[in-house]
């Protein structure tokens, strides 16, 4: 069941689970868009690609995620999703940690957010 959703300049997120210590979201990154270059101090994330493909920056590496691929983002890892394709990229994000809310440190942002 959908708990919450929000349209963003890069696409949309939908929240399906939100329990103490974890949260599960479906994230859609529109063609030609990318998320902030960011890191987290209190949570880990696990992403599973379910539609399309995208480039994922993880610290000093850039990897291409395709359907069925997954990536683990540890506390402090610098990361970003970039969709250079003509179709949406969709992934499932599981956030794990004691402090999940408001744990985004943006290092770069195309949309002027801090």
Describe this structure in words.
There is one protein chain. The strands form three sheets. A six-stranded antiparallel β-sheet has the order 1-2-3-10-5-8, with no helix packed on it. Strands 7-6-9 form a three-stranded antiparallel β-sheet, with no helix packed on it. The protein has a single domain (4-108), classed as Jelly Rolls (Sandwich), CATH 2.60.120. It has strands spanning 4-8, 11-19, 22-29, 37-39, 43-51, 53-58, 61-66, 70-73, 79-82, 89-97, 105-108. The N and C termini lie far apart (31 Å). It contains no helices and eleven strands. Helices cover 0% and strands 59% of the residues. With 114 residues, the chain is an all-beta fold. It is globular and about 35 Å long.
Looking at this protein, list some descriptive labels.
114 residues, mainly beta, Jelly Rolls, six-stranded antiparallel sheet, three-stranded antiparallel sheet
């Amino acid at each position: 069941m959908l708990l919450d959703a929000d349209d963003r300049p890069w696409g949309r997120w939908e929240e399906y689970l939100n329990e103490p210590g974890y949260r599960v979201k479906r994230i859609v990154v529109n063609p030609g868009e990318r998320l902030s270059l960011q890191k987290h101090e209190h949570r880990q994330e696990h992403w599973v690609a379910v539609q399309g493909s995208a480039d994922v920056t993880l610290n000093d590496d850039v990897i291409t995620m395709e359907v069925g691929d997954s990536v683990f983002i540890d506390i402090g890892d610098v990361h970003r999703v970039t969709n250079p394709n003509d179709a949406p990229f969709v992934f499932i994000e599981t956030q794990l940690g004691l402090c999940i809310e408001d744990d985004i440190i943006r290092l770069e942002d195309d949309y002027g957010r801090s």
